[in-house]
Design goal:
There is one protein chain. By secondary structure, this protein is α+β, with helices and mostly antiparallel strands. The longest helix is centred in the middle third of the chain and has 17 residues. The relative contact order is 0.12.
């Protein structure tokens, strides 16, 4: 395997008694976009700032572009790290026009080469012809593209994006996110972006790293972290999940719904993860299972049902076939694939 463009090994950072990063290790390959997701205070922005050189680490090493930039005896300043950053507040210079904002990191290039590179990245981000405008004359999405162009202009080894779409409304955020991902891939850039939005991480990341209390719980492709979470926390953070108590026997778990196929061998008490889209709900007057709550979600309606043992399970039905609260139903997990399982 080729050497990663960005590598963190045992990185630690404390603020007084608070451990912000606890032995964090991960590697990002060339051309990969890694999404870092986790709840507020989990350490994701601290990790990004440490990679950018905006704060020193207390333990471990950080290598970017094939060289150590932070370690026990190393601290390369931010401007020499070959790292581009798109900040949460974008940090555009209001007194400079678009072209000068983008050219800010190209001061060492000759004038002709600098102008050529500015034109190239503005074309790449879809802002060709807008170089003479100022930030206040642009929409929020256009400002975000200027910030991305500025980060890409020096052709850095790694581009870091810190909650880059949080200042946009939801519909625009989706469009700008899709455009940003396309631009990063078109540029062949290696990127790390921090987000608290689980859907955003799953949709945009080539891989997803889930952080909790300064530790990495799992790093994997989006499909794996969603369908085969490494922990109960990952399961509940990346989507809605219910857990059926059961007894683990080999590759099956015996539950209220009989033997269900699961993703791992094991034995003993367990919990089987079931997401709402993995549950079938049909009306049945003879059943003691009852719909207790519904939530309209556009194309789908989420149904909360109370099972015979008093526990609750959630499932979805099309918006054209919702079931009213109080309806007696029969439910069962869909078992066309193994379900994630955790020791109880």
């Amino acid at each position: 395997m080729p050497e990663p463009v960005l590598e963190l090994s045992g990185v630690g950072k404390q603020f007084g008694a608070v451990v912000a990063l606890d032995a964090v290790s991960l590697a990002v390959q060339r051309g990969e976009l890694l999404a870092v997701v986790g709840p507020s205070g989990c350490g994701k922005s601290t990790m990004l700032r440490a990679v950018a050189g905006l704060l020193a680490i207390d333990a471990g090493t950080i290598c970017a572009g094939g060289r150590e930039v932070a370690g026990p005896r190393t601290f390369v300043p931010p401007e020499r790290r070959d790292v581009g950053v798109v900040f949460q507040d974008l940090a555009l210079f209001p007194h400079l026009d678009v072209a000068d904002n983008v050219a800010f990191g190209l001061r060492r290039r000759a004038g002709g080469g600098r102008r050529k590179r500015v034109a190239e990245v503005l074309e790449l981000v879809g802002l060709a012809g807008l170089g003479q405008r100022f930030a206040h004359e642009l929409s929020g999405g256009e400002q975000q593209r200027v910030a991305l162009a500025r980060a890409l202009a020096p052709d850095p080894a790694v581009v870091l994006l810190d909650e880059p779409f949080s200042h946009l409304d939801r519909n625009l955020r989706t469009l700008v996110r899709e455009h940003t991902v396309d631009v990063l891939h078109a540029a062949g850039a290696t990127g790390v972006f921090v987000t608290h939005d689980q859907e955003e991480a799953l949709a945009a990341g080539d891989r997803v790293a889930v952080l909790r209390q300064g530790r990495i719980e799992q790093v994997a492709v989006p499909e794996e972290v969603f369908h085969s979470p490494a922990s109960r926390f990952v399961a509940t953070f990346l989507g809605e999940a219910d857990f059926l108590p059961g007894e683990h026997y080999g590759k099956h778990a015996h539950t209220l719904f009989g033997a269900l196929p699961v993703t791992a061998f094991g034995s003993g008490p367990c919990e089987v993860m079931v997401r709402p889209h993995e549950v079938s709900i049909e009306p049945d007057d003879a059943s003691s299972t009852v719909v207790t709550r519904t939530e309209f979600r556009g194309a789908l309606v989420l149904h909360h049902v109370r099972l015979a043992d008093g526990s609750t399970l959630r499932g979805v039905r099309p918006h054209t076939a919702p079931l009213a609260v109080g309806t007696h139903v029969i439910v069962h997990p869909l078992v066309d694939h193994p379900l994630a399982v955790f020791a109880a």
